[in-house]
Amino acid sequence: MGAGRSPSRQQAAALLLVAAVLCSTWKPTLQQPAASPVAATPATSSNTAATATQTTAAATPAAPPTTPAAATQTTAAATPAAPVPAKPAAKKNKQVELAPEADVQNDIDDIDVQGKCKEFLSSSVCKDVEAGEGGVANCISEAISAAEAGEEGAENVPDDCQEDVYQFMITRGKNINANIPLAKACKADAEKLCKNTWVFGPTAEGRIIACLREDKDKLSKACKAEVYKVQMAVATDYRADPEMAALCKADIEQYCKGVKDGGGRVTACLRSTRAQLKPECAEAVFRQELEADEDLRLNIVVYRKCLGDKKRFCPDVAPGNAQARDCLVSARNEDGFSPACRDELEAMIEARVHDFRIDARLRRACKDQMQDCVGMDIYEGDETIVNICLQDNLAQGLIPDGACKNMVYEYQQLAAQDIRFDVPLADACHDDRQKLCGNVPPGSARVIRCL
Description:
Elements: H1 9-24, H2 45-59, H3 68-78, E1 92-93, E2 102-103, H4 118-121, H5 135-148, H6 159-172, H7 180-193, H8 207-214, H9 221-236, H10 242-247, H11 249-255, H12 265-272, H13 279-294, H14 300-313, H15 323-331, H16 339-354, H17 360-365, H18 367-374, H19 383-395, H20 403-417, H21 423-428, H22 430-436, H23 446-450
Antiparallel strand pairs: 1-2
Helix pairs in contact: 1-2, 5-6, 7-9, 14-15, 14-16, 18-19, 19-20
């Protein structure tokens, strides 16, 4: 074929075949740009045909064989799985508007009776208690306390069940609305007394509850009864007080590591190391100690050690208002009084003579007289000075007849019985006592007579 002539039939056929292949692979969803015209290049018919054959083979993909198994798998993959039913939203409670809305635990405000306490509940005294509003948890808490106190016939609650109850109480302590009976009983009291709660610590958790505990004397009867249950939960396990748990975390790690939670053990450990505690933790421990001073049941360790003596020496004394404590203190030197209880009571007395604030009754009875003592130049935050000042004023006849005079007189009698309760004398004679009377046990004025 000469140069400049039109393409042969074979060339034209090859070009048409290429065009057909290209059109078969074109996707309608994509808009293809217009093709630029290309000048045909003359070639021999044999080369053109071979090129067209290779192009067709490369451009046309082989269809995969369709087998019945493959078709079945494709059908199965294409069929959507049955929808999983959505989990019902947790029940909410917001009885007290000042506090956030709270989830109701297990939708009944109680522990899961099919959970870690299931086996215990199957045969315990709590098996017939209806679940809801903390009924089962409170019953198990009482069983735990009875076992801790060594009461006759007390049931042993397994550790995992105890922890389940503690965690229930911890969650309740973070928000009043998580405790339905408390929220119901204290709604009006909270609205009246707890509108400014920033003073109750750096965390918002538990602020309304902390406010109610602080103003317990002003609460309605129903609210006070529910607040007492909260106080018992905190006395048993410090973690039920979110502020105390946060403020004392580092001190507990340092001084009480390894102490088992529950049974008031961690709080007792913190009290025994009060001189080493950080100020913010010491203040939280002090607040709990004030509550325990009013009601011996809120000092779990002391109550456990003194329960037998309470039944023997003070059986008719009602709890609260420090009545049981005072009765036991008066009877502590009687024959048959247990040494374990006596030691705990005398440790409490020693703490009070060093810090008048711990004795709630003294603070109430001697409020006016204390103002004069706190205003003294020698006070400077030394709480021991106030007790000494009151006793000096009593000796000088400056305290009128009444409750304050009677209580200060009681402190004078305690100081005469035990050198540990006479702070100036104990400080002045410390070295002589160690040197001359180191083997003399305190109490019954024995050390004073030795000196």
